[in-house]
Amino acid sequence: MKLAFTTLGCPEWTLEEMISNALENGYQGIDFRGYLGEFDIYKLPEFSTEREETRRKFHESNLEIPCFSSSITLFTESDAELKQHLYELINYIRLCHYFDTPYIRVFGGHIKGATRSAAIQTVARNIEAMLDVLKNHGVTLLLETHDDWTKCGDVKELFKHVDSSKLQVVWDVHHPFRLFGEQAQKTWEILGERIKYTHWKDSYVKKETDRGYQLCLLGEGDVPLENIFSLLKEKGYDGYYTLEWEKKWCPEIEEPEIAFKQFAEFMRSIAEQYTNA
Questions:
Q1: Smallest Cα–Cα separation from 220: which of 181, 177, 180, 253?
Q2: How many helices (H) and strands (E) would you count in the chain?
């Protein structure tokens, strides 16, 4: 079982702090969603002029960067917007080559009043442009079950228009269940062959909040995480189990020192239960 955390969970940590915590808690990878306030990390010295030093730190620690979680969005409203996302894609492809990273996470985005049919046409056209950039590169885009592309049926409909091995799925196991009551078995039946990576979080309903739910440590909410884990194992999933602790957006939740340790312990516990079942 390969564990990682995204840097959303430790927005104020340095590379050294991330690596130290990952090693202490038995993680195998760190997924970059920004670094010290900058989401376009390719602009930072650590991932440009000083990237050799960053790569050395990861190699010496025997840690991977399994995914770069970009801000690239598939639905756009203008050619200028698409051009910016293509620019971002080019820069992340370069980082993927340098750090031996196979995946770039992308968003479907909010369709902003467009019909679903029109949005799919726009997204399909934009994906084709991105796939053209990806040509001859060993990098895969991962569409997250998020925003207006959370339900498995909506994602499946998109794949009817874009059928490429260079576009796969990162299953945020929280969003489909919490926002739409979608059961894990259904998600897997529709998207399973495309799921190459997973994001993990837990929550419980709290209607007085803006989101309508409250994020919490894993196992303290009611997302059926143990069942999802068992399903993934039974289906032969061998990718990463990545904690997406949204400390950046939700400062009230536990500090990363607590959450990262708890996630690793929780996942090892349910893995042991599955093995002994």
A1: 253
A2: 9, 10
Q: Are strands 202-205 and 213-216 parallel, antiparallel or unpaired?
A: antiparallel
241: number of Cβ within 10 Å: 23
Q: What is the pLDDT of residues 61-99, one digit of tens each?
A: 999 999 999 999 999 999 999 999 999 999 999 999 999
Return the beta strands (E) in the chain as ranges: 2-6, 29-31, 67-73, 103-107, 140-144, 167-172, 195-200, 202-205, 213-216, 240-243
The answer to whether the pTM exceeds 0.85 is: yes
Residue extents of the structural domains in the chain:
2-276
Q: Are 73 and 67 in contact, with CB atoms under 8 Å apart?
A: no
Condensed to tens digits (0 to 9), the pLDDT of residues 238-276 reads 999 999 999 999 999 999 999 999 999 999 999 998 888
Q: Which of 94, 106, 104 is nearest to 48 (CA)?
A: 94
The string over 9-36, giving b where at least 16 C-beta atoms fall within 10 Å of a residue's C-beta and e elsewhere, is: bbbebebeebbebbeebebebbbbbbbe
Alpha-carbon distance of 243 to 161, in angstroms, equals 31
Please give the Cα distance from 249 to 34 (Å, whole number). Answer: 12
Element (DSSP H or E) covering residue 96: helix 79-99
Averaged pLDDT, 155-179: 96
Kindly give the interhelix angle for 184-191 and 225-234, rounded to the nearest 10 degrees: 30
Question: What does the alpha-carbon distance between residue 124 and residue 117 come to, in Å, rounded to a whole number?
Answer: 11
CATH homologous superfamily for 2-276? Divalent-metal-dependent TIM barrel enzymes (3.20.20.150)
Q: Which residue has the tokens 């239960």?
A: 273
